[in-house]
Amino acid sequence: MTFDQFPPPAAPGPRIGLLGSYGGCNTGDEAILMCVLACLRAHRPDARLVVFSRNAEHTRTHQPNADEVVDWEGVPQKPVLDTLAGLDLLILGGGGILYDGEARRYLRIVRAAHERGVPTFAYAVGAGPLREADDREAVRTVLAEMTEVVVRDEESRLVLEEVGVDRDLTVTADPALLLTPEPFTEQMMRQEGLPLDTRLVGMSVREPGRAAEKLDEADYHALLADVADFLARRLDAHVVFVPMERQDVRHAHGVLSRMSAPDLGRILNNSYRPGQILGFMSHLDMVVGMRLHVVIFAALSGLPVLPLPYSGKVFDFARRTGAPALVGVAREQAGLLVAEVDRLWDEFPQRQQDLDRRVRGLKNLSRETCERCGALLDAIDGGAGRARPSEDADLPLLAPAPRQT
Asked: What is the spatial distance between Cα 75 and Cα 87, in angstroms, rounded to a whole number?
């Protein structure tokens, strides 16, 4: 056999970088990363997926679809820039990363990619607030040079337009809408001390931020404790606090300590993957939450959900799913909050079909973002190695889940 009888070696797949708030700081961001990686893996099985992470060890352990992980914070910049230079595409996001104090840091990396001739794609990014001059300038100049910009919600589009971003902006939905649930077993419930024979209401709390600027922390916790007590009484339920970031635990304890019936409250203590948190929703009867991705997970699970006012992204998701969208949090509004909870519980059977229809529409938008990114990738390298599922095949979204811990 002569050498020319051997088939040529397969061309290496494209190298795709992902830059976002990744590294285990926030369960919602990790859910976004899982879904974007799975989208890329399904579209291009031959691709080498490189994640720029704030905690490379965490990402290597928890993201099975990542081929390579690079620390980008607090490290020498030459290895980061060398990695950028070898990419065929850099993806920014998804999630809320274009805001004061952070936008300029992410966009410094994007600008460096542009200087090295790397195409860039903003994947369902969230924007705002943007009041600081340096961040506004970075957003205005760098986004203008990106190959394509897709934003997560209408609020983000309006923020970017106000900053002066003058280009086409596509509005989509959060990538985590495509997350696949993992089992949250009875054994896991028992380990958390959660009852299996009573109603459970999930509650997500965080620092008040702009949602309660005029409340001190004690009054803020007391307001949410009133809501939790009402839920426990009205539904004859236990209230389970679902932390999505470390600081959420402190605020959950603050609310729990001010409940008149703290024995009816629990806080999830163990660390869980995003898919497990989504799976936990199957044990709940209702969700009241400030964290966007707790609200998203509840909607995906077909639960009645009351988004508590926190930021534009939560208002936007409430509007798009037909959920009640409250404005502002003040101590005297405890009655308004519990009235909304009461109404939601009573009216949800009539609302459920509409919620399910709206969620399907949002999931379709998330899939379109995946397809849009895939089309850009195909245009870059001609689509070599592209996966071509049959027309009626479902998009496989996740690699096999790691063994439960």
From this structure: 20
Residue 353 · residue 66 · CB < 8 Å: no
Alpha-helix residue ranges (DSSP H) falling in 10-100: 27-43, 56-62, 77-85
* Residue ranges of the chain whose pLDDT lies below 50: 1-9, 388-405
> 186-358 has which CATH code?
3.40.50.2000
Rounded CA separation 301/295 (Å): 10
Q: pLDDT tens for residues 61-98?
A: 999 999 999 999 989 999 999 999 999 999 999 999 99
Task: Give the pLDDT confidence score for residue 403 in this predicted structure.
Answer: 33
Distance CA(293)–CA(278), nearest Å, equals 9
β-sheet with 237-241: strand ranges across:
265-267, 237-241, 199-204, 286-289, 305-307
Map out the domains of the chain as residue ranges: 13-171, 186-358
- Strand-pair category, 170-171 with 199-204: unpaired
High-pLDDT (> 90) share of the chain, %: 77
Sign of CA dihedral 282, 288, 289, 295: positive
Cβ atoms within 10 Å of 43's Cβ, excluding its own: 22
- Beta partners for residue 19, in sequence order: 52, 92
Q: Identify whether the C-beta of residue 303 lies closer than 8 Å to the C-beta of residue 181.
A: no
pLDDT one-digit tens code per residue, 376-405 = 999 998 766 555 443 333 444 433 333 333
Residue 267, SS3? strand
DSSP 94-160: EEEEESTTTHHHHHHHHHHHHHTT--EEEEEEEE----SHHHHHHHHHHHHHSSEEEESSHHHHHHH
State the chain's mean pLDDT as an integer: 89
> Where does 13-171 sit in CATH, by number?
3.40.50.2000
290 with 211: CB under 8 angstroms? yes
